[in-house]
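[job 0412] stage=complex_fold ligand=zinc ion status=START
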Amino acid sequence: MALLDRVKIAIARRKLTSLHMKGEGNALEEWIQGKIRKEFERSKEFRQAIGRDELGEITRRELREYQLHRFRQQMAYVMENSYYYQKKFKDLGLRPEDIRTYDDLEKVPLTDPADLAAEPLTFLCVSQSKVMRAFTTSGTTGTRKRLFYTQDDVLNIVDAISAALRSVGMSGEDTLQIMFPAVSAWDPGLMLEGACKVAGLRAKVCSSVDVDEQIGTMRAENTKVMIGLTSFLYRITVLARDKYDLRSFGMKAIICSAEPLSEAMRREMRSAWGCKILSQYGMTEMGLATAIECEAADGLHMDEADYLAEVIDPQTGKHLPDRTPGELVFTSLSMQGTPLLRYRTRDVSFLIGPPCNCDFITVGRMGKVQGRMDAQTKIGYGQKIYPVLFDEVLLPIPGVLGYRLVLEREGYRDKLTFHVELKGDPAGAKERMLEALMQLDEIKEPLENDLILEPIIELVEAGSVAFAPKSKVIEDRRANYDAPAAAKGS
Ligand SMILES: [Zn+2]
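[job 0412] stage=complex_fold status=DONE, emitting structure tokens
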């Protein structure tokens, strides 16, 4: 490493809260509380909002006050620096001091991803010279969006990643193996690797689809934690478990990222590796490391020092109570480059208040994402289907690596063809899959009402098709919409 790089990293490390923790309680919660204490020392407004000169013990109430205080600060900041928000809030006559409670947030208009995609520069709050990194999102379910991070934004993300990795048990001697296949639409591997380097953790990127190469890297690098695309980690597990004794690796945790983790996948992976299998949630718009699951496996703990989450009814925009699914909405509380207020994620999830069965007492959780609002497809008389739904019934069948579903229409009936990638003996497999699919109301009900045909299973030999990320497993070939030319009347 060049001397200048070493100096830069040394300076950066001094700013990281995650490297100055006492190691009491959970690393992530301690880190979040550390950030709240820093703000209390720094900000007179925050002390006034709490109404005390001493912070003392941090409870849920102080955490919420901190979030609302940061929300007001960000609101003032974007009103001064972002053309988009300036215009939006001026028209409404809304002021930061109008936001005192969680319910007050409903007064603030939502930010639509389409606006960000259309005019990213109207969101930018700093001069271009202060932008350290610009990211373009994958755009698998919509238009690409461009996000700008300043140096402090990047350091903050590094800090969050470091705190999250320490909270799952990673230490200085372990290596994190970063496993995002090159075919996935976007590669967060390099950002993660850089974050580990700054935070003093070892990391190795391995994007190979070759199982032996992945296992070889684990041996050579002393990999103790893995992070990667969920369906990719699952595939490597199923292909490797007959050939290698995976439990002998002494893996500490496997973090499944960028795609939902079904319980069926979790069970299979846990029994193969003998370690905790955790789901992680993050989006480029919110700095990538937004939430991570704990061992209690009842929701993902959010980085509530940097993000404020809400769940709303997408039709009315009203807040929904805990454990009621709706659209997840996030506000970035510390971002400087492209700070977003009440940003619609299009992800379906729900909130869970503290405490948790793990050792977290103040930090809230979000439920596992149940699907993308725009990735859901309807069959029959409106049964919603989405990729994870079929995971639960198809993946427990021995040898099933993955599947692709093609939707077509025959007359008024929907026709579902599952192309299932199977490793091993195909005898009786089709019958078992069909039986499993029939356990789903989403299949059984429209079938009984003659609105869909009996699902068709086609077996595909393992390894004969290229790996595809989860977002692409349902292909809808039904002509549900007019062609754009016809719609214009030309
Ligand atoms: Zn927990």
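Residues 294, 296, 301, 356, 358, 360 surround zinc ion (CB under 6 Å).
[job 0412] exit 0
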